[in-house]
Each structure stands twice: as C-alpha cells, then as structure tokens.
Write a structure and sequence with these properties.
There is one protein chain. The chain is an alpha+beta fold and 156 residues long. The chain folds into two domains: 32 residues; 112 residues, SoxY domain (Immunoglobulin-like). The protein contains three helices and nine strands. Strands 1, 3, 5, 6, 8 and 9 form a six-stranded mixed beta sheet that branches. It has a three-stranded antiparallel beta sheet with strand order 2-4-7, with no helix packed on it. It is elongated.
Length: 156
C-alpha cells in the first residue's frame, strides 16, 4: 500500500466519527442532552450518604440569577466547631439539571479549621443546587437553592 491509500481527509474522518456517534445514540449508549432531575439527585444522595438529611447548618452563597451558565460561582460554609469529636467529614455538591447530578465532593478534617469552600460550576440551565454535609457524628444536613441561568451553560 502506498502512503496516499492510508491517508484520510479531515472530512472523511469527521464523517466517520459522526456516523459512529449516531450509531451510539441509536443504540442508546450515548444519550444526547440527557439531564439529571430531582429523583436522580435523591438517588445519588442515598448512594453516597447514610442517614436522612435534615435542614440546617449549611449556608449557601449562590447567585439567584446567573447571566452565564458556563461559570456559576458556588460557595458554602457548614456551621461546625471542627473539633476532634465534632467536625464536618464530607460535603457533596449536586445539580438537578446537569448531565450528571454529582458535581463535587469536599473532604475535611478537624485540622481544616472551617468547613468552607468555593468553586465554579457549569450549569445546563435553571436548576436547584443541592449541598449535603456529612458530620463526624453521623448526622447529615442539606441545603438547596435554585439558580436561574439566563444564557450559556452546558445545555446551551
């Protein structure tokens, strides 16, 4: 075989990749535009956390309206003495409208001093952001807030 027989044009390669993606979609292996919902978030929480979450202890700092869904600031703080006997172990961040409900997990120890973190997340439209905190004593706390996304995001 000569070198020219093995070379694919960019157009041929893109056609092949597109055909493969369509085959996956048709087979149900790749769901286009699939998004989590409240039930998916509840299932993810039950999978990660033991116990029933109750309200309280978590302060959220989220915008009510995000003009750009590509970079939405998310911050939280959990009220805890962060002592050897009473501290926040893990805080999980969930989004009800993103392709995957699980966004991030933050791990803390008594040496952390505070159970506080901030990040940015991409949001696929208006949705609830859910934060769940696991405490060292086994208690679980939850807070939820809706963020209205006006443009952008991972869903367009």
């Amino acid at each position: 075989m000569t070198e020219t027989q093995l070379t694919l044009s960019r157009r041929q390669a893109l056609k092949g990749v597109s055909a493969f993606a369509l085959t996956l979609v048709a087979a149900g292996l790749l769901a286009p535009g699939a998004h989590a919902d409240a039930a998916a978030v509840d299932a993810a929480i039950k999978k990660l956390v033991k116990g029933t979450p109750e309200e309280g202890k978590i302060k959220l700092d989220l915008p009510q309206i995000a003009e750009n869904g590509n970079t939405v600031p998310v911050a939280f703080e959990v009220d805890s003495p962060m002592s050897k006997d009473d501290y926040v172990k893990t805080v999980h961040l969930f989004a009800e409208g993103n392709p995957s409900p699980e966004v991030a997990s933050f791990h803390f120890t008594p040496q952390s001093g505070m159970a506080r973190a901030s990040t940015r997340m991409r949001m696929a439209g208006t949705q609830n952001v859910v934060v769940v905190a696991e405490m060292s004593n086994g208690k679980v706390y939850m807070a939820k807030q809706q963020v209205k996304v006006t443009i952008g995001g991972c869903g367009g």
